[in-house]
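DM from R.C. (forwarded with permission)

"hey, sorry to bug you on a friday — could you get me a structure for this? deadline for the figure draft is monday and I only need the backbone to look sensible"
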Amino acid sequence: MKLPLFILSIALLSACSKVKEIEKRTQSLERSTEEVSTTTEELLETTTVMFQQNRAREAEATREEKFQILMDDEAELGGRITAAGVYLRSFEFQLWSGNPTFDDQRALDQYYLDAVNEFTGRSADLFEKINLRRMSTVRKDKMEMSFYALAASLHLNHTFQEEQARNTGRPLVSMYSLIKNALKKEKERQTLLPHEEVLLSGINKEIMTEFLKARVDILSAFALRNLTDSSDMTLTQRAKSLIFRITGGRLGEIDLPEVYEQTNAATRNSITRYLDDAVATRQFLKTVDIDKVLERTLESAFKSIDLNESRTTPPAADERRVGIKKLIDLLLG
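My reply, with the result:
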């Protein structure tokens, strides 16, 4: 009887030892799991920080590079417009993902504030270099061209934000919409957000307003360029144009040859789009009690356009032609 009892005791001790060993292994595994979890969280946090830093650094470098083009005396209008578009698309609010871990609403509000602080500061530098009384879309002043380039590009959005808007239904936000919302809220005496206060404080309000006025002119000029051909002017038209420029618009007129009937559908669509955007900006300015009259050269040119309606035999009915004429009337009205 003693032998079996001894064997049973040995078996029990062996079982207890195995249980303790399993417990130790389990505890070790739990510690390892916790360590891995902690390491994963730390890695995720580090990756998130690196992503934010890289995004901010790359966006800032892009904006710096493109604004240097806008301040360059050598760049032409096309290059300035391209640079302005990339510059305005590269603010971090354009790249906001909505990720609750690092791109929450508080982050977005800060991106808006950072963007308008930079934009108003850089715009003030540019604004000092232009003469509003002489400013015209037909002049070749480099800084004026940059001002017009920014004005024409204010509405642009980064493709990332456009994709986010399609996937989430969030509204698109541009520098143009930020400026308009600020002016509208001020008109309605609503409380302004911090970035809206920056846009409308001191001289910034004047600069933002002048951007919108310049936007009306430059978009109208783009439409006019596609609607006419200055290289085909007659001697009479050139003489009237010269008199207009010499007398500062008191005599003569800008009478450009119309080419609507020679244009294709794509060109007609672009004319409509430019005019529609110009009219929309002008009408918005009216809602905040700001009157905008077309720059006198543009005004004279558009007044001379009748889209061949004065011919003995009127052109055939054309909805696009009628729509363009209505938009021109709205610009001049």
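R.C.: lifesaver. The longest helix spans residues 2-70.
me: no worries. The radius of gyration is 32 Å.
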